[in-house]
Write a structure and sequence with these properties.
This protein has two domains: 3-45, no CATH class; 47-439, no CATH class. The protein has two helices and 35 strands. The chain has helices spanning 3-16, 253-260; strands at residues 22-28, 38-44, 47-53, 57-59, 68-71, 74-78, 81-88, 91-101, 107-115, 120-126, 133-137, 145-153, 159-167, 170-171, 180-182, 186-191, 203-210, 214-223, 226-233, 240-250, 271-275, 282-290, 297-303, 308-312, 319-340, 347-353, 358-366, 370-375, 382-388, 391-397, 402-407, 410-428, 431-435, 438-439, 447-451. The strands form eight sheets. Strands 27, 28, 29, 30, 31, 32, 33 and 34 form an eight-stranded antiparallel β-sheet that branches. Strands 20, 21, 22, 23, 24, 25 and 26 form a seven-stranded antiparallel β-sheet that branches. A hairpin with a 2-residue loop joins strand 18 and strand 19 (226-233). The chain starts with a helix and ends with a strand.
Amino acid sequence: MSILSKITTGVAGLALLGIGGYAVAFIPTPLSTGIAPLTTVVSPESVTRNIVCAGDVVGHEGDSASISRINSVARSVAGGDVTANLAAATGDNGAVITRNGDTLLVAATESDAVHSEVATGYLATECGDPLNEQWLIGGSTTTGRDTILTISNGSDVEARIDLDIWGSTGLVDAPGSKGIVIPAKSQRSYSVAGFVPDEESPAIHLVSNGAAVWATLQMTVVRGLVAGGLDRIGPVTDPTTTVDFPVLHVPAEESIGAVLSDSSYSDIVAALRFLVPGETDASVTITLDPYSDGEPQVVSATIPAGATLDIPLADLVPGDWAISVTSDQPILAAARVGFHDVESGITDVAWSSAAPAQVGNASVVAPSHASLGLHNPSDKDAVVTLHIGGVDTEVTVPGHGNYLTTVEAGLVTVTSTSEVSNSLFVSTPSGIATLRGLVAPIDAGSVLVVSG
């Protein structure tokens, strides 16, 4: 095959991979063989990106086994437009947001404060890019705890979903968890208790055969007749050997101490949940770094393979913390913190999904009352540009260090040429939540392809 034929085949292959609408230039470069190959510079002319939002707060009204809408969320969108609503069992719920153009800076956040007999608290979570494989860590299906898996398919073809579910005793035999059909432009919600009842620490692996989907876990807590705890948990893509939670807030003893004397409130104590999906136990190092004065605390632990494990962090002093975990085996993890307001009596809980270390532009729409945390997992300083309130600010995050700032409501963009993780912690009178700014799954920059 000639060099020209190879180039033609290569460009056709890019089209098959969905890389269309690109300008192509051919640049000869030398090879040690003496034959000059052609280097293909593929530059995007126009990019379409779709992100998916999970929609309204759902749950069980009274003793009903069916899942229905409890409350409508507020959706804040930057850089895109709603192009489709998703069909759910109780009417449209969830949406597809599309951005066309030469930038991938599109983001959306859904948030809501609820105060009812079945759910009380505050949630805020990012909308995200559909995935064919994802992991969801958090929640519980013990008495008074409800965890709902919502799967949103914003594409034009159906998705067939297989679930693997782990608990504190290992991989669960979960009837009905294979071959779940999510039709095109639709959404389905399932109580995790229907797959694994009375499980205090579930973790879910979701694989979609067909269309990519966006999945979330929504959890609610009712203690006796008192609702207190609401959150929505976003997915992570893969097990990794480093896990970051750039900002979490531990409440003061005077606000949360009174309820902790009641054992039914033990699930608002700060904690980390781990899963080692492989067959080898993991040795992990947990670094707990306060943003206030004080030295980092370093804890070593062994996480048994094949089952979830919750590790309480009950001794953390009140304030803002960055938590990072390194492991000798691929792991999954999530973090939990609690909230209680003495005057209103509102209790809430926030689950934080791990924040991926990312290069490029990570965008998130911040609600009010938010703090942005950054973590640099590398040895070298990272120079980061923050776009907040229309103003660009350059900050340096030291190697293995952290950075914290308050942000106003609206679009927040974190731009870095080296890996940095980010998360927002939101604290309101109605409760708390965490969310993350995510980088687009494709690169809008030029792609270099060497042929020959």
